[in-house]
Amino acid sequence: MHYKRLVSTGIMIAAAALLQHAVYGQSQPNIVLCMTDDQGFGDLGFHCNPMIRTPVLDRLAAASVRFNNFYVSPVCAPTRASLMTGRYSLRTGVYDTYNGGAIMASKETTLAEILREEGYRTSIFGKWHLGDNYPFRPQDQGFEESLVHRGGGIGQVGDVKNYFEFDRSYFDPLLWENGVPVQTRGYCSDVYTDAAIEFIEKHREEPFFVYLSFNAPHTPLQVPEEFLRIYADKDPAEAAYPRQGRSLPEMSDLERDAARRVYAMVSNIDQNLGRLFESLRSLELDSNTVVIFLTDNGPQQLRYTAGLRGRKGSVYEGGIRVPCFMRIPWLTPGPAGIDVPAAHIDILPTILSLCGIPLPRQLQIDGRSLVPLIQGRRVSWAERPLFFHWQRGFPELYHNIAVRKGRYKLVGHAPHTAGVEDLELFDLQKDPYEKEDLRTSNPAKARELKQELDLWYSDIMESPHLKEPPRIHLGSPHEDPVLLNRNDAKGDEGIWAQDRIHGYWDVQIENDNFYNFTFFFRESVNQEGTMKLRLGTTQRSLRNTDPAARRLEMREIFLKKGNYRLESWYRGSGGNHLPFYVEVSLSNR
Question: What is the CATH number of the domain that holds 428?
């Protein structure tokens, strides 16, 4: 699909003459979108954290349009789906970080796809977390170049090639370059930044989109010693909230060590961003490159949060309010920033506006361009509702769910039968730290927001991609073999690195053919037994007499085209074992 570009006699004009940015004889602006993983609102010197060192990010914040009330989802994959599509993640099929809930439907139109159609060179370096198999990979969703890890994080169960590196997984990781495994050298954040700089140098004469998506400071908290030494003599527990008049809760030695490691990882990212920005300057690209920085959710561990309540996974402010800076070279930002609430769903339409690209007519999104706010114009949607939720599995009404509309926010930590009296109401303009519940003093506002939440929930739970889950394709010429990992396996909520658990994968067989299956176990099966495979009515068994086996194989199994639940388990005297991952390939017969 091709989208019409706004062009007028050699002059590229951004939508509505955006900020008078008419660039004669020059390409559309480049876009560098930077996201970090589990870096909270308070993990910046600019946000008054007295412990952390982030000079590059602090300078970026000072030179940027700052959104003081910017929101994302409480966890990473949903945030990333909204960022790429401008839609609430449930519409895209993404509802969780694992258990099959982190696969974005291939029919979704991504920011990368739109920009690529408009002549942009598109790239992603780092964390994708929206599907590791065809047709959900970055290269299937509009990215011309990709260098990513698999699953939700390096060394996690979805990233099977680095999982067994344990405390070294962030160093010299095996990554996937355009779908092909490559062995890299160096610390992961350095590797991603090097690749981004190389891409920019290669395409400096063309408009480019770089999505630099660090997996740090997500666990495991691994970082080069040189950065850890910066914080060796610092006590993160001494960080105060000067404007809130309170201190951090009591921190254990382990929590102090974790905070130091997070700060060290952020300082490493800060240094890498400095290298990236210097590259833009040396290539004389910084005057035509928009830089956007944000994070994907609040902090996972206990540390300074600038007084915000809650952490990652929570719909309180500490879990969903994050930094968002936009450095727009042709604009001098105001000193105070923008207070109107904005969110991850707004990034796609904002970038398109900055690039002078119309939103595709058939595309229905939830977000809105932030350009009117950037221009200082009054907007009629300043009190639009924004919705947040997270549960393991599908969303439950009133369970860790919230809506913000204007200055007010309604929070639910209650059963699905809850009435308005069971919810919490906060006035964030007066009470940004969510200390005072107003539901009894302002019941009318609580009822209004509950009605907004009810209507949204009823609508979004009917989303087609949520009701018809995305399926991993087997037998496709685009990916052979296919590696089915635990991150995308469905079943029990505890399906992670456990061995004695049941799980399955939703798959689509593309063609009638013979297939080979190889089952890999995290540890030896430790007993004689039988390997079982089932897809629909096709079931096969393989007897194993080697207790030390960690790899079993079934070959030349004929399967018909169609949709299936792929189930596999090893049955021994001690019960069932789920393979750690399964490799499926076309037979050569």
Answer: 3.30.1120.10
Q: Quick check: bond before 372 cis, omega within 30?
A: no
Residue 370 lies in a domain: no
pLDDT of residue 245: 53
> Comparing C-alpha atoms, which of 294, 296, 325 is closest to residue 78?
296
Catalytic residues: 76, 129
Q: So what's the pLDDT on residue 27?
A: 62
Name the domain count of the chain.
3
Encode pLDDT of 389-431 as tens digits. 999 999 999 999 999 999 999 999 999 999 999 999 999 999 9
Q: E-strand spans in 272-312?
A: 289-295
* pLDDT at 118 (0 to 100): 96
- Cα-Cα-Cα-Cα dihedral of 222, 225, 230, 233, to 10°? 90
Domain end point (choices 341, 376, 406): 341
Residue 236 DSSP code? G
pLDDT (0 to 100) of residue 14: 40
| 40 has a pLDDT exceeding 70 | yes
- Do 317 and 404 touch, CB atoms closer than 8 A? no
CB atoms under 10 Å from CB of 246, counted, come to 11
Q: Is the pLDDT of residue 291 over 70?
A: yes
Give pLDDT, residue 574. Answer: 83
Q: Looking at the structure, do residues 450 and 493 belong to the same domain, yes or no? A: no
SS3 call for 99: coil
* Residue 477 domain-assigned (yes or no): yes
Instruction: Please calculate the CA angle 112-118-124 and round it to the nearest 5 degrees.
Output: 25
SS3 assignment, position 248: coil
Domain that holds residue 318: 28-123+132-144+189-341
Angle (CA) 82 84 89, round 5°? 25
Amino acid identity of 496?
A: W
The yes-or-no verdict on residue 526 having pLDDT over 50 is yes
First to last CA, the chain: 38
420 and 333 in a common domain: no
Q: Decide the pairing of beta strands 321-322 and 289-295.
A: unpaired
Mean pLDDT of 17-35: 65
Q: Which two tokens stand for residue 47?
A: 């946000």
> Is residue 174 within 8 Å of 257, Cβ to Cβ?
no
373, part of any domain: no
What is residue 335's predicted lDDT score, i.e. its pLDDT?
A: 84
Which band of pLDDT confidence, cut at 50, 70 and 90, is reported for residue 7?
A: very low
Are residues 229 and 276 located together in one domain of the fold? yes
Give the separation between CA 46 and CA 32, rounded to whole angstroms. Answer: 21
Tell me the residue type at 132.
Answer: D
Domain assignment present for residue 158? The answer is no
- Token look-up 């080069």 returns 224
